[in-house]
Design brief:
The chain is 38% helix and 28% strand. It has 363 residues and is of the alpha/beta class. The longest helix has 18 residues, at 339-356.
Length: 363
């Protein structure tokens, strides 16, 4: 299954929050997007582009502005030697396979095409293409990519599957599972969970996985952030239903705020500095004490591009997680990249440590 996403309309193309939202919805519904293309309204190459994409991909998802929506229908009707008919206040090809409000599916040669009408500040219409479950994704924690390959590839081969690996943060590997001819994905994943307990995370997102486990267990979480500046809290609150488990976040950039809000001692800050294991440990204690949450995450580091030293270069980040009735973990990491990439890596790693604090909750 090869899927292409075609976004039509400059009013959509340069609306970056809208594009991010649409791409996320598409990935959640059908999985991997092999290629994304953009074209402006009125582009004279639209006919040729549609024909080429429909001939090259098994699934083509077209997200069209209102201005181009009917034109797309006319082009598809021409390609399929069809006529347009008015259905549900939409001009649709008469051979449409299925349709709902502002969304329809047609077939062209071997390709399935789903056309959606997209407007700013509105929800995306229903995606009618269904995933064929030819691939799946999971995380492996506390193992590097080469170790994953050595241990998992032979198991995958016995289930007629192919694996590919991507290191997200230190010893945290994102794995893609692809079916071969007789591939058995579900049996393979069940075997892995039994063989490598507390290492396999069956989710496309570590953050989503952690939140779902907290919701199921009805356990509350808080966080204390410095260099990530509220990013961890934003990742949590992007998920629905978290009001029942998220106590809040303390963003303590200044050292005095760390003292007053999180009860980090003046001696700790003076002797070890804000970017230290001791400081993050006390940030965790303070966050749990102040909020009464069951779990806490804390981060303090140097995201750059300035502020580093020989002892603590840019990219040095101390990250911690603690269960009120479980383990406290604080680790020193060194991340590379620009400021935003360092912050995102640190935030993701915080969730990884959170998952490790209490196996009976997270596994």
């Amino acid at each position: 299954m090869k899927t292409a996403l075609l976004i039509i309309g400059e009013n959509i193309r340069y609306n970056y929050p809208l594009v991010d939202y649409m791409q996320k919805e598409v990935r959640n519904k059908i999985g991997k997007i092999n290629a994304t293309f953009f074209i402006d309204n009125g582009d004279k190459e639209l006919f040729l582009i549609l024909e080429e994409l429909a001939s090259s991909f098994t699934h083509l998802l077209i997200l069209s502005s209102k201005k181009s929506f009917n034109l797309v229908g006319k082009i598809i009707s021409t390609l399929t030697q069809d006529n347009l008919k008015l259905k549900e206040q939409m001009l649709l090809p008469s051979k449409v396979l299925s349709y709902e409000k502002e969304s329809y599916i047609v077939k062209y040669k071997e390709s399935i095409i789903n056309v959606l009408l997209v407007e700013e500040r509105k929800s995306l219409p229903k995606i009618l293409i269904n995933s064929q479950n030819e691939e799946e994704f999971f995380f492996v924690i506390d193992m590097d990519a080469q170790s994953c390959k050595t241990l998992l590839d032979p198991v995958a081969a016995s289930y007629d599957l192919k694996l590919s690996y991507s290191t997200v943060v230190d010893e945290t590997v994102f794995v893609r599972v692809q079916k071969k001819r007789y591939g058995e994905i579900e049996q393979f994943l069940n075997t892995l969970c039994q063989t490598f307990p507390a290492k396999i995370i069956r989710n496309r997102s570590i953050i989503t996985y952690a939140i779902e486990k907290l919701l199921k267990a009805n356990r509350q979480i808080t966080c204390a952030e410095s260099c990530t500046g509220g990013l961890i809290a934003s990742m949590i609150t992007s998920h629905e239903g978290v009001s029942s488990i998220f106590k809040g976040s303390l963003i303590t950039y200044d050292n005095k705020i760390k003292e007053h809000w999180l009860l980090v001692s003046e001696e700790t800050l003076k002797n070890f500095g804000a970017v230290s294991e001791q400081c993050v440990s006390e940030m965790l204690d303070g966050a749990l004490k102040i909020t009464g949450a069951d779990f806490a995450m804390a981060v303090s580091g140097i995201a750059g591009p300035s502020g580093g030293s020989l002892e603590k270069p840019v990219g040095t980040v101390y990250i911690g997680a603690q269960a009120k009735e479980g383990e406290k973990i604080v680790e020193r990491l060194f991340f590379r990249g620009d400021r935003n990439y360092i912050q995102k890596q640190a935030a993701i790693y915080a969730f990884k440590l959170l998952i490790k604090t209490k196996n009976e909750i997270f596994f």
